[in-house]
Design a protein that fits this description.
Elements: H1 2-6, H2 16-54, H3 57-73, H4 78-82
């Protein structure tokens, strides 16, 4: 395929080189997906699920409320966020934990 893609084959026509380049690209992408990307995603998802299963219910609730707060604050500018009141070092927004 490589000589055909480079245009050095005997019977390279107008369709030969683009077809060979497409085949080489497809084989390369499928190999990368199969050997690198899918196993990496699977391993990361398994680790994340294992971590979530071992957490306590209270920690899961804290993380969910933190995500909700992050979404709620995402529409503010840095100047607006800086003007919000700050908590002292010992103060907690979760008094029951």
């Amino acid at each position: 395929m490589l000589p055909l893609a480079m245009g050095k084959g005997e019977f390279v026509a107008g369709l030969g080189a683009p077809f060979a380049i497409t085949v080489i690209g497809g084989l390369t992408m499928s190999t990368l997906l199969t050997l690198v990307i899918i196993p990496t995603l699977y391993s990361g998802l398994e680790d994340a699920l294992r971590r979530l299963r071992t957490q306590s219910v209270g920690m899961k609730i804290l993380q969910l409320t933190g995500m909700v707060a992050d979404k709620a604050l995402s529409g503010y500018s840095a100047v607006q966020l800086a003007s919000f009141p700050r908590m002292s070092a010992g103060e907690s927004i979760y008094p029951f934990f």
